[in-house]
Amino acid sequence: MFPELDAPVSTLRGVGAKREELLCDVGISTVADLLLFLPYRYVDRTRQAPIAALPEGEEVTAVAPVRGANVATGRRPRFVLVLEDESGTLECVWFSGHRYLRRAFSTGDLLAVGGRLTRYGGKRQMVHPDVEVISDSEEGTRVHTGRVIPVYSTTARMKAERLTSRGLRRIIHQALEDVRLPEPLPDPIGARSGALSLGEAVRMLHFPVQRGDVEAARRRLAFDELLYFQLRLRSLQDVRNNKPAPVMPPRGLLTGKMLATLSFEPTGAQRRALTEIGEDLTRARPMRRLLQGDVGSGKTLVATAAMLSAVDGGAQAAMMAPTEILAEQHARTIGALAAPLGLVVARLTGRQPQRERSEILQGLAWGRVHLVVGTHALLQESVVFSRLGLAVVDEQHRFGVLQRAALLEKEGGAHLLVMTATPIPRSLALTLYGDLEVTVLDELPPGRQPVKTGWRAAADREKAYRFLREQVSAGGRAYIVFPAIEDAGAGDVRAAAAAFEELRDGALSGLRLGLLHGRLAPAEKDAVMAAFRNGSLDVLVSTTVIEVGVDVPGATVMMVENAERFGLAQLHQLRGRVGRGAAGSYCILIADPADGLSPDARERLDAMAATGDGFEIAEMDLRIRGPGQIFGTRQAGYPEFRFADLARDLDLVRSSRKEAAELLDRDPNLDRHDALRKRVESVNLEGKTTRAG
Ligand code: ADP
Ligand code: MG
Nearest residue CA, atom 15 of ligand 1? Predict the structure, then answer.
């Protein structure tokens, strides 16, 4: 019997209960975990030569018989094993483990030793080398010498219990011998995805033979990962393909009326988006569309028009936003446009009084409420629609893939529009939104000026405050944002609250300051936002609760404290809170301490100053930090790939999507691919998801 992939590691040779427990330290509990445990580096010990010919200072392998051993006492007792071949002698030195070593080797044993060659007191030495006894039968199964060897990370506890990288190497080497890795890909895909079988790829990942092996192996595993992801994503479509969506009239009355009341003309991009979405809505095949547009491009208007179309078609529409503040704003904006048309617009968040809440729920169930805007509270089971025709998800990147599907699963057969300002690189878009069609708002409303951006040392803060005062006396308004401080709990709230008092009584005294953070009661949040919006506050001191979506066209200054702690995507979002009107706007990033900045942080701040283009920023972010971190914990909701690297693997993203589509065409439920289906079902489509603030 071969050990099973999902069996505990203790089913493997060389792994007992003790080691099984230790392996948990590095996240290994099953055989598959072990096989996919990545080396963090490799050491090339392929260089093997007679002792005298080995280069000093390099990792090498020597093969020679033992001539003798001795224990040298003194300040640092050491065990010395002397090897000798025709060309010279080599001393292998250990400063610990003498008792074991003394019994381990005998004169005449043929050993392969691997490590860094040094010279000490005129003698060639290796300190704490890896040693393998070579007998005739064992030649050819060397694990630690004479090849490129993997190095694994281990914890202090593992080391103390003598399960080192070397021990792991042996265990994994043995597992690669004993475990048969079944090929999960159907034949034709396997043949196309590169010549490597899964088994070969995994072996090469640990024990590469040639240059390029590790990368080839990574790509094979990345392909699998992306393929499973695509298949899982596409399987979500099942729900909706079965049920037709309500068909909307081509040019709805309400939509037209609303557009006629606007004080501005829609941009060309907004018109194109409205046409595309309008066409989708006239079909019974449910729309699945992503509306992507940089901060301030006017996505809300497009969404509102689409929502009115739903009502034109006799259905309801819902919009989900990631924060209470944003839900409130949208409810108000949409309400202002829809109420004159006689429509009922409701707001649903998690923190409403029970009475209000049940009234809204009833209105939705009976169809009295036409449009609803809410947080993820909309996903609760108690929320039932009379007839949901369109679901809109704003700032989609703040939700998970599953949450976007969840809104639909409530009804089935509803149209879906998801919106995001976070411009994401092509590869990521194809990966995450592989199941969506894309409309891009590639035009800002006329008259917008680029936001002047600069970063300053904390020492220049006073100057920044003076500038901020000038802006306020010229009629502007300002945000001052404080970052979330990890492992300090509500550190951001405290920082913002402390700064609020300090500024009010100090540097910004005389100005009207407001304080906003996630711990305020909803009514307080609403009141502060309303005051800032209508101009009765000059400065809003805030945590990152205003990061996405907030729209106050009169705000002209965005000052970000500890800007070095933010990711590029976040900084771009924050900057997007200003420059939403005709007035010139400014973004001041305060780096603290400016002289202790990491190269990455400096690069991010420079990038912000250099460009205002969201797409450029996204590409830069992907390059600087890699996809795993772009969205970090603050912008969670994204899957984390282990092998796939979206900055490099656009070709794999493309090919995996194509294979996924073809495979599902042939075998929609993967009935004929049992093993594959099981894997796909276990795919985790999202990382962590953020809570509504
Ligand atoms: P985002 O795409 O970031 O969600 P919003 O929908 O919040 O952008 O719009 C940003 C601001 O631009 C809002 O104040 C909105 O009223 C305004 N706006 C939207 N479309 C236009 C337009 N065509 N002309 C002028 N202003 C517009
Ligand atoms: Mg928006």
Answer: 298
Burial of 664 (0-12, 13-18, 19+ CB in 10 A): middle
Query: What is the 394 CA–ligand 2 centroid distance (Å)?
Result: 7
Distance CA 382, CA 19 (A): 48
C-alpha 557 to ligand 2 mean position (Å): 18
Residues contacting ligand 1 via CB (< 6 Å): 264-267, 270, 293, 295-301, 421, 445, 551, 553, 580
Ligand sitting nearest the alpha carbon of 305: 1
Q: How far is the CA of 296 from the centre of ligand 1 (A)?
A: 5
CA distance 483 to 562: 7
| C-beta atoms surrounding 543 within 10 Å | 24
Entry field: residues in the chain: 693
Q: Is the pLDDT of residue 240 over 60?
A: no
Residues contacting residue 600 through CB under 8 Å, at least 6 positions apart: 624, 625
Share of the chain above pLDDT 70, in %: 90
pLDDT band at 690 (very low <50, low <70, confident <90, very high): very low
| pTM score, whole prediction | 0.73
- Report how far ligand 1's centroid is from the alpha carbon of 445 (Å): 7
pLDDT (tens digit per residue) in 316-346? 999 999 999 999 999 999 999 999 999 999 9
Q: Which range, of 74-88, 356-370, 619-633, averages the lowest pLDDT?
A: 619-633
In sequence order, which residues have a C-beta less than 8 Å from that of residue 19 and are 6 or more positions away?
9, 10, 163, 167, 171
